[in-house]
Specification:
The protein is of the alpha/beta class. The protein has two domains: 221 residues, Spore Coat Polysaccharide Biosynthesis Protein SpsA, Chain A (Alpha-Beta Complex), CATH 3.90.550.10; 98 residues, Hexapeptide repeat proteins (UDP N-Acetylglucosamine Acyltransferase, domain 1), CATH 2.160.10. It is built from six helices and 27 strands. Strands 14, 16, 17, 19, 20, 22, 24, 26 and 27 form a nine-stranded mixed sheet that branches. It has a seven-stranded mixed sheet with strand order 5-4-1-6-11-8-12, with helices on both faces. Strand 26 and strand 27 form a beta hairpin. It binds guanosine-5'-diphosphate-alpha-D-mannose and magnesium ion (MG). The site of guanosine-5'-diphosphate-alpha-D-mannose has 27 residues, from strand 4, helix 3 and strand 11.
Length: 360
């Protein structure tokens, strides 16, 4: 990541919104919150935290409502990741703005907000802050360009990048631009005064249109680098492939992990197995005789890949067992799944209880 040091985001606090149920990622989120879904064998939220740390942002508030205990158990106080984490829990989901209001006591200067459990980018946060300060904005929304804006918040700006209109998920015919809300904002604490206390309230349909109505300065920062919303299994699959193919880089992943065939600890690989890079294999896996793995592929902890199995472009989570002579191509397999012998499965998401097409 290319960093300019003129304005420094170090020390800024960040709120990560991690309260959504992840409906569109099902069945991957049947038993896991979105934030814990593994990307190259690490929870997506851990990538987001590493991204913030890369810019010197270590004070992070996790605004949560859905399955909070799983997230808290994994991350604790954040020390292991070099972060200071504060958990703000909503009894009922308060919406994207209500969740920020719920963390108001921790927010006393310009702060960052991220849709941290499904958006990944390599945007430079020093540059974003520099833009926000130069414009003297009350809110700055990072914008990214997409082919089909109708699934996002569409943001119209003027020649000075001041936001004229924010319209959430409009029909394609009403979207006047392809610049959309990238789910990354810098806000001034005073805008919290416009969010009702203890009520469900959204940034996208509530706060942003409201700030525009009352004439507050809202700006759009255009970003042209890597950006992905891993909102669906297909996009999740593409994201893992992009990291393995070095189309983008996560500060969490050491260079050697995406540079060839990378094995973690205690791997038992039969000498006749053929593994073609890029492949990442986590601790405690057993790879049998004449197994063929063609990357890009990721295999999680404690998996057993039995004799003569053939895998191509797969993302396999933890403790998966694949029966001999089975063939998987473009598949995601979730934790604890057992696949019988002699199966031929393509373009699918496979969990212990169901198999659905990957294109969903
Ligand atoms: N704490 C909390 N409470 N978090 C929430 C709640 C809530 O009630 N509702 C949603 N979130 C979190 C989600 O976990 C996610 O990180 C973020 O807020 C946005 O919610 P999504 O459900 O993922 O929204 P979306 O993907 O349909 O659209 C949003 O993201 C797009 C970019 O990916 C919007 O912000 C769009 O305008 C934007 O373009
Ligand atoms: Mg989303």
């Amino acid at each position: 990541m290319n960093e300019k040091k003129s304005v420094d985001a170090r020390g800024m606090k960040a709120v990560i919104l991690v309260g959504g149920p992840g409906m569109r990622l099902r069945p991957l989120t049947d038993n896991k919150p979105k934030s814990i879904v593994p990307v190259l064998n690490r929870p997506i939220l851990e990538h987001t935290l590493a991204y913030l740390k890369h810019f010197g942002i270590v004070d992070v508030i996790l605004a949560m409502s859905y399955l909070p205990d799983v997230i808290r158990e994994y991350f604790g106080d954040g020390e292991r990741c070099g972060m200071r984490l504060t958990y703000c829990l909503e009894k009922e989901p308060l919406g994207t703005a209500g969740a920020i209001k719920n963390s108001e006591t921790y927010l006393d200067s310009s702060f960052l907000v991220l849709n941290g459990d499904n958006v990944f980018t390599d945007m430079n946060l020093h540059d974003l802050l520099a833009f926000h300060l130069a414009k003297k904005a009350k809110a700055t929304i990072a914008l990214t360009w997409v082919d089909n804006p109708s699934a996002f918040g569409v943001v119209e700006t003027d020649a000075e990048q001041r936001v004229k209109r924010f319209i959430e998920k409009p029909p394609l015919s009403e979207a006047k631009t392809n610049w959309i809300n990238a789910g990354c904002y810098i806000l001034e604490p005073e805008v919290l005064g416009e969010i009702p206390q203890g009520q469900h309230y959204m940034l996208e349909k509530g706060l942003f249109p409201r700030l525009l109505d009352i004439g507050k300065k809202v700006y759009g920062y255009t970003y042209k680098g890597y950006w992905l919303d891993m909102g669906t299994p297909q996009k999740y699959f593409n994201f893992n492939m992009d990291l393995l193919l070095l189309k983008t880089k996560s500060p969490l992943i050491a260079a050697e992990e995406t540079n060839g065939v990378y094995y973690s600890k205690d791997i038992d690989i039969h000498p006749t197995a053929k593994i073609l890079a890029p492949v990442l294999i986590d601790d405690g896996c057993k790879i049998g005789k004449d197994v063929h793995i063609k990357g890009p592929a990721v295999i999680g902890k404690g998996c057993v890949i039995n004799n003569n199995v053939s895998l191509e472009q797969v993302i396999i989570w933890d403790k998966v067992n694949i029966g001999q002579h089975s063939r998987l191509n473009r598949c995601i397999v979730s934790d604890d799944t057992t696949i019988a012998e002699n199966q031929d499965i393509r373009n699918s998401v496979i969990t212990p209880s169901r198999t659905v097409p990957l294109s969903l």
